[in-house]
Amino acid sequence: MESYEQRLKNIVNHLQPTNNGGIEMVDCSADLEVNTISSNSSIPKWNKQELSQYLESAPEHIRVAKKNLLELLKDPIFAPKYNMNVQEWRELTLQRAIKVIKAGAISLAEFNRDPMKYLVSLEMLNLCDPSLSVKLGVHFSLFGNAVLNLGTEKHHLKYIKDIDSWKLPGCFGMTELGHGSNVQGVETTATYDKNTEEFIINTPSDSAQKFWIGNAALHGQACSVFAQLYIDNVHYGVHVFVVPIRNPDGTIAQNVRIMDNGHKLGLQGVDNGRIWFDNKRIPRDNLLNKFGDVQKDGTYVSSIQSKGKRFGAMVAPLVGGRVLISTSALNVSKMALMIATRYAYSRRQFGSKGNEIRIIEYLTHQRRLFPMIASSVAFTFSVEKLKRLYCEPNKNSQNVKDVHIWSSGLKAVVSWMKTNILQLCRECCGGQGFSSFNQIALFKSDLEIDMTYEGDNHVLLQQVSRNLLVELQKGRYTLTSANHDSNIHSYDFQIQSLKWRESNLVQTLSSRIMAQLDQGRSLEQGWNTCLDVVTQLGKAFVDRITLEEFQAGIKNAPSSTKPVLELCRNLFFSWKVNEDLGYFLCHDGIATQTAQKVQDSINILCAEMLPIGLDLVNSFNVPEQFIHAPIAQSDYIQEFRYGLNRNY
Amino acid sequence: MESYEQRLKNIVNHLQPTNNGGIEMVDCSADLEVNTISSNSSIPKWNKQELSQYLESAPEHIRVAKKNLLELLKDPIFAPKYNMNVQEWRELTLQRAIKVIKAGAISLAEFNRDPMKYLVSLEMLNLCDPSLSVKLGVHFSLFGNAVLNLGTEKHHLKYIKDIDSWKLPGCFGMTELGHGSNVQGVETTATYDKNTEEFIINTPSDSAQKFWIGNAALHGQACSVFAQLYIDNVHYGVHVFVVPIRNPDGTIAQNVRIMDNGHKLGLQGVDNGRIWFDNKRIPRDNLLNKFGDVQKDGTYVSSIQSKGKRFGAMVAPLVGGRVLISTSALNVSKMALMIATRYAYSRRQFGSKGNEIRIIEYLTHQRRLFPMIASSVAFTFSVEKLKRLYCEPNKNSQNVKDVHIWSSGLKAVVSWMKTNILQLCRECCGGQGFSSFNQIALFKSDLEIDMTYEGDNHVLLQQVSRNLLVELQKGRYTLTSANHDSNIHSYDFQIQSLKWRESNLVQTLSSRIMAQLDQGRSLEQGWNTCLDVVTQLGKAFVDRITLEEFQAGIKNAPSSTKPVLELCRNLFFSWKVNEDLGYFLCHDGIATQTAQKVQDSINILCAEMLPIGLDLVNSFNVPEQFIHAPIAQSDYIQEFRYGLNRNY
Prior knowledge:
648 residues; three-stranded antiparallel sheet; Acyl-coenzyme A oxidase (chains A, B); flavoprotein (chains A, B); fatty acid binding (chains A, B); peroxisome (chains A, B)
């Protein structure tokens, strides 16, 4: 089969003879004259393969593993299929999950040995089918991870093999109907009975039912249950227990009740369910006891004295989920941009008959797609850095904190960016964006939840800002003043501007809270009145680290790719500042004339990108095999010819 | 059954004894202390029924018709049902449509006699099931409307009865695969054959296939086809023809081929299809000949000389669709806000055990919901005005133009606002927002398309701006200077600010285009380089007319409701200006100190709204019977008790 570029070149040659010997993949010169902004990009050609590999930045052994997984995902069972009811979705997802597991493509052992490889595998599964990656993610990254990192050797010996073979499908029993973000407030109890050496797991009220538990409605047999530990009426805080919820034959275990969460906006293939425990007795050994244990006689022992720190250890497994959401959201953003951009360079509308204008030539289209393409490139570097931080084998406490802060911030900002990008791409594709076959719509539904699960975005940004505030108060935060230069395309100007904004916000936050404390209010009360600044600050931090990582990435990039990466950096910066221009101007973070220059730069940078935008998205590190969308093919009209059925 | 308020009051009393005799529907006083912003709203109580009726503003006979329709919609066939494949969705939607038609609740005759009543009926059907309203809308508002307003008496006699009985289900064959926004570019041809006195309808290429045609995949028997008319090789532009596409027995008509558009993001109940015509012959009488006719001998006659104006007449039926989208989007926005706000006032998270904080008390929650509540109230008045303009029986050319401009602008801005509101509400409800049972998610999917169909929003805003530019150039546009006062809560300040922005933008647009013309470019080329300003200007116009209509509405409002309406106006204004603060500051439309005041006002106005936000959404004019969402009930925990099945 011809490559995408070859086919596109052929059809373009057919539609409109090029006048430069066919060097340009798409020759827009005839149409570009309509756009009075300069059509000649100053950006020289780059090697697409080289840029794609650089954006991926994975070591060789991971590339090999990825290639093998991609081969597996060519099996017909993974072909797109949409027209199903909930039962059919779940069954297909189960069969897909089993196929992946049986092929040994993903496992808890792997997760432990080579987290980067595990992460990349889940990323690929997510591009193939988000229900599949979530179902496997619940089983391995949440349930399995809890066993691995909250349990001890006895649990590893007992469970890991069965987890890796899917003999023991698992659930992660954290969220309750009444408690989502506030995990410390879960109501489920685990009361130790020293006579029988058992824990009694109980759901004291309907608000304590475990809610939204993936794999619970149908397939899960064990559940890592978060519950308040009581021994002799003394409360020891939240601990995690392995509780059987189904028997090996699939029937529901004694003293357990399960209901179905039912139909959802997306992720129909994941069987989310609700669980009640009726004084369900489990052996003492089922406590995952790495950070806190109960001896036979009921004596509580823990290496961590602080209840708060112990709780922190219990929820640490969630960090991996946030890393995965960041990277998956970024991948899906890129894929949607590839689809919408290809369509925008081939779809024509209005203009002279027989020579209608490509829709990418409309400024409204450029201003929607190009800043998002630039942003996707920018976030590639901060997200890759996060992945590396997360996968580092021997983390010190600073590393652990960095991973927490970076994963919280990036998960929030990138998942929102992804939602925005999917929305813009959907609209840029018009009715085609509404068709399931063009993929954007379904990613929109499936990935919608990522802004509120594994930590609500607003709550996560509080983690980021709280940390910055502490740094400031401990004198460890370096304040940056505003830069009143006007060289908006210089990195020094750009980074100083973003650092100034962050500095200014953290100082505002600090002084507003101080004022509240002076009025006799508690820190918590003061904090609540500042949540607008808290959110702004969290986002500002993420923008700043992203620009820094982007610049570091440009420094190390293959030289042919530097000009296009710099163009992306400039557009990313201008777009971000323009979005927040009121703040910059109100607080004298930028001169009015410079602000005007930033605004004006967007159209100019878009014009720079116009001749190369298609090449750029085709340099993205997203495997072509996942792009089924008819509008992303070289000749979308042909994809809709009579008789070509697409009834899946 | 107890009313919602009564049940809420009971449960609130149960949860937490009120200390003021239960006058407040929800007594937040205990919790409000946590929020250090003043918890005492200066807004006095209003009569909810009175506000609700005022927001509805329908005359008595329409209220009666609406009440009857609401009774009909209590039939079990209209009960929510989600877990279906495409085939089941379509069958259910068909049966619902037939039920509505058989009850005489909607008809083309009605549409002709009392468009306001027709409009309100479709609004209610949309709240019940968007697939249902779209399926009926295609049949009546598009196909039927074409017959009514593009056809003449012979067509009315022949078709209207069968349209009203669903004996002749209709499609609207305008969009083609290759041509959406550019209707004048459709490729389908209608060639007159004077020998047989027939038109030959033909699809010359795959890009000319009729695409996204509602009712085409399964049920449509006739289609109003937009095609280029040719007589003796002379081209007469786009005309509309009634073409049979299925026989009465449901088989596909000769020389017609149909395929299915398949699975979509939403509106699964609408059977969108694709149609090809293979030199399909239809009688001469099938031309809808009100604005252009072909005599037996092939002589073309038309009362409208200009091809452009004739085309305008042909696409005039689309205006009604834009009015309906505006009003439906607004209704759905309100419904989503009702659901999310009720949940926000009952859901608790964090804070001291047993007395956790209601999530509405978090500033991040208030800043997402309250400005949108205020905006929904604001747009009620401009959308109601549009409805009245549209339904006016004897319109002069100025009226027709106003309806065109207002419907274009409001359709774009309100559908975007709705998308934003659904997104915010989804996120504010966390995981619950992802459940189909809570309705927000499904409205998100079903109404997603409204930003790009019946006129792409960006294209529609061009209509608005083009008109303003013409007004300016003809000297009919009154320019407004900036107001450098700082009384941000005075209407005079507010309207002058919005008028200034509009003025400034229209002048910028004009001068930028002039500069392009001076450089020898065509008007079209110049226009394309200014599409960023064009979009901004279109939105600025809609904000301005909305503020004006809102103020007129406040003037006429029942006096008890004025304070809360004024609060909404102030918040609407501050929010809108804050969103665009960079523009105001860059162009000296507001003093820096005033800008700061606008920013600060948002938290203050949110604090004002906190004690009354729940009352306010409960005063919205959305029938309670459509709100099934468990989280919108008085005790959402109870709605999820064990054993209460929700398996639809």
